[in-house]
Structures are given as C-alpha cells and as structure tokens.
Specification:
Blueprint (H helix, E strand, L loop, with lengths): L5 E5 L3 H14 L4 E5 L2 H10 L4 E4 L8 H9 L6 E5 L4 H9 L4 E4 L4 H17 L5 E4 L2 E4 L4 E4 L2 E4 L2 H12 L5 E2 H9 L6 H16 L9 E4 L3 E4 L6
Parallel strand pairs: 1-2, 1-3, 3-4, 4-5
Antiparallel strand pairs: 6-7, 7-8, 8-9, 10-12, 11-12
Helix pairs in contact: 2-3, 6-8
Length: 233
C-alpha cells in the first residue's frame, strides 16, 4: 500500500468533499483530510502544511482554480489532482500546462478517482529511483522528470514522464492504450484512451516543433503509440 498521509481538498461543495473523503478513507484509513472552501484558504493551507496530495476544484467562489494552481506551483511540487465539471479539452490542457498532475471531470466514478490517486502516490515512490533512457536525440531522466530533445531541456508532468518512459523502454513496438493506462493508473478504466490522448497531445507539443508531423512519437491509429529505436533526423 502506497503512503498517503495528509490530503487537502479545495472544494466549495460539502457533498463533494464528503464523497472524496470517503473514497480516501476506504483505501487509506489513517489519512488526514483537510478541506478549504475557497481558493485563498486553500493556498494558505498548502503553504503552511505538508500534504501528500491536493485535490482542486476549478469553480471556486473567490478566485479561479487555475489561479490557485499557479499560486501553489510557485512554492510546492505536491501532486495536484483537478476534479471539476469543466470537461473541455482546452481546460484540461490548461490545467496540465499550469502544473496539475491529473484531471477528472465530475461526476466522477469512485474507481476512477481511486485509480488516479493510487497512481500519483505510486509515481512519487518510483521517482526516487533515477534512471536515464536514451534514443537518438531523445533523452529522459526518469527521476527528475526531465526530457532532452535535440539539446532542449523539457520539464514533464508525472503522467507525461510515465508515458514517455513506457514508449522508450519499448522502442520499436506499439504500446497500446491499455498498457499505457496500466502503467499510468495501475488499471484501465472507461475513457482511459481519451485521457491518454490529451496527455499525449500536451507531451507532443512540448517535444515536437511540428506536432502535425509527429516525431519522435508515432501513432498507431486506434491502438497506441510507438517510438522507433533508430531516430532519423
């Protein structure tokens, strides 16, 4: 069982806070849950307390959840999971760009929420062991979540780091959506492929000058993604 000591939920709905708290306490009975009903309160709590995870709503009564995310990222690298009714791809990409590690759209399924949280805690443990992977002009330092492509340093989210690691370890073979879902979340769930596509879109924009002509990551339509073992510049 992966460690989850203390969680902060920044959410103005008491019902949602109660639902998330129940899911957490079923899986981690000893977890301490704090709740903030406003963005400003959430930022203050995040600044003075050490958390294993922050769960953040975007629709807060005082300031935007995006502003909260930006503010917390100025002083903390704690895993942040956005849980919101805003399901537009532009909002998901913006959340990931600003530093969120995962994004779930309400109403959420308990098993999906649990899978996402378990994945974040698991990745915190795995990231302590640094390893360097290299294929042509692409290098990945798994422990620091930093990729280097053609000499350019690129910071990755935890999910992007996991995706790229899987592709590089299986260079030349297609890594299926199912296999990626298992690597990211420990299991596959409904709409996992759609979530992976959003993360992949963001990863490609970071790595590739022209995402419309994707290199080094290639797509196998309807199946998954792959990287060729010998990259042609």
């Amino acid at each position: 069982m992966h460690e989850l000591n203390r969680v902060l939920i920044i959410e103005d709905s008491d019902e949602i806070v109660e639902a998330i708290s129940l899911v957490l306490q079923i899986r981690w009975p000893e977890v301490k849950v704090d709740a903030a009903s406003s963005g400003e309160e959430g930022i203050k709590l995040a600044g003075r307390t050490t958390y294993s995870l922050i769960i953040l709503d975007l629709g807060l009564p005082d300031i935007s959840g995006f502003k909260v995310l930006e503010s917390i990222r100025l002083f903390s690298s704690v895993p942040i999971l956005i849980v919101t009714v805003r399901g537009e791809e532009s909002d998901i990409v913006k959340g990931l760009e600003l530093g969120a590690d995962e994004y779930i759209v309400k109403p959420f399924r308990q098993l999906e929420l649990l899978a996402r949280i378990k994945a974040l805690t698991r990745r915190e443990v795995v990231m302590k062991d640094a390893e360097t992977l290299s294929i042509g002009a692409l290098v990945l330092e798994t422990g620091t979540r930093t990729a280097y492509y053609k000499g350019k340093a690129i910071e990755l989210t935890r999910t992007e780091n996991t995706i790229l690691e899987q592709l590089m370890r299986n260079a030349g073979s297609v890594v299926t959506y199912t296999r990626l879902a298992e690597a990211i979340w420990g299991d596959e769930y409904t709409d996992a492929a759609a979530a992976i596509k959003v993360h992949m879109s963001r990863l490609r924009h970071k790595l590739e000058p022209d995402p419309q002509n994707p290199q080094p990551i290639q797509t196998k339509a309807g199946v998954g993604y792959f990287i060729m073992p010998i990259e042609i510049s």
